[in-house]
Amino acid sequence: MPIRFAILTAGNIAGQMAETVSHMPEICRWAVAARDLDRAQAFAEKYGFAHARGSYQEVYDDPEVDLVYIGSPHSHHYQQAKDAILAGKHVLCEKPLAPNAALAKELFRLAKEKGVLLAEATWTRYMPFVPALRQVLEEGAIGKPLSMICDFGFPVSGRARLARPELAGGALLDLGIYPLTMAALVFGEAVNTTGLCAKTEEGVDAQDCICQTFAGGETALLHANMLCALDNHAVIYGEKGQIRLPLFWHCEEFTVLPREGESRAYSFPHRISGYEYEVESAVRAIQAGQLECPEMPAAETIRMLEMMDALRASWGIRYPFE
C-alpha cells in the first residue's frame, strides 16, 4: 500500500518535493498544509494532493497521514517535528533537523518513545554517488585521500530566514552543513574543527572558513558564504591524484584524475530531482519497522549539530531562543 504523504508548508522546497513525489508510485499524495488555506489549495491542485489544510494541526490530527515531510525554514523544524511525532506520525525533516544538538536529541528521544521514524533530509547523504565515491576511494584510485577543499555559496543574505538571528539565521546552518557533510562522507568523524567567520550587522555569520583534521592525518578546508556565489565544487586530493565533484551537494557526476593514466568519469543522473532518494529511504525504513534511515542515522545528525554548535560558540553567536 502506498505511503500517505503530507507536506508542511507550500514554499519552494516543498514544491520541489511535491513535484518529485508526483512521479513516485509508492507515494500517495495525501495532504499539504499551509497557514493560508488558499495557498494550500493552489499547491494541492498543482501537484495533485488529495487534501489541502489551512493549519498544520489538521495534518497532525489526520489519522490517514503516514509520513510528514517538513520543508519549512529551519527555525520552525523543531516545533513542527515535535508536534508531528507526538501525533504519532513518521517525519522526514529538511536539514538541519533543529537549530542545535540539544533540541535534536529531544526529538529523537520522543520519536523513539512514540515508535516513529525521524530522519533528517540532508539529501546529499542519500544520493547514489556516495557509495560509488566510497568504493573508488577504497579501491585506491587516488591512493590515500589526504585533503579536501569544498566551497558552497550563493548571494542569499537578503532572505529573512538567513538574515535574522531569531530565525537561526546565518550561513552555517543553511549552507555550511553541506561542506561539513561532504568532508564527513569522505573522511569520517573529525578530531578537530575550527573556523572563522565574518558577521552581518545583525550578528549572524555571513562568510565562514572552516578547517578540519581527521584521525588519519587528513585535512579539509571548507567555505560557506551567503554574500556571493562560490564555485560550489569539492576536490579530494590523494597521494596519486584527485577527484573532482562539480555541484557536489547534489552530485550527478565526478571525475577521477590520477597522476598517471587516463581520467575516468562517473555519472549518476537523478531519476527525478534528487529528492527521491531520501523519500525512498524513509519508505524502506518505515516498511521495515525502523526508526532511522541508515544513510542519515540519529547519531550523525547529532554529531553534525554538535560541531556547528561548537563553531557558533567560538564565534560568539547564540540565537535569542537558546
Regions with pLDDT < 50 over 5+ consecutive residues?
A: none
Order of helices and strands: EHEHEHEHEHEHEHHEEEEEEEHH
Main sheet makeup: 8 strands, mixed
Outline = globular
Q: Write down the Rg.
A: 20 Å
Say how many strands there are.
14
| Ends apart, CA distance between termini | 42 Å
Strand content: 25-35%
The average pLDDT value, as a whole number, equals 97
Question: Strand order of the main beta sheet, please?
Answer: 8-9-10-7-11-12-13-14
Keywords:
eight-stranded mixed β-sheet; 27% strand; 10 helices; 35% helix; alpha/beta; six-stranded parallel β-sheet; single chain; 322 residues
Task: Kindly describe this structure.
The chain has 322 residues and is α/β, with parallel strands linked by helices. The chain is 35% helix and 27% strand. It has helices at residues 12-21, 37-47, 56-61, 77-86, 101-114, 129-138, 160-163, 171-187, 276-287, 298-315; strands spanning 3-8, 27-33, 51-53, 67-70, 90-94, 118-121, 145-153, 190-199, 205-214, 219-225, 233-238, 241-246, 253-258, 264-267. An eight-stranded mixed beta sheet has the order 8-9-10-7-11-12-13-14, covered by helices on one side. It has a six-stranded parallel beta sheet with strand order 3-2-1-4-5-6, sandwiched between helices. α4 runs parallel beside α5 and α5 runs antiparallel to α10 (298-315). The N and C termini lie far apart (42 Å).
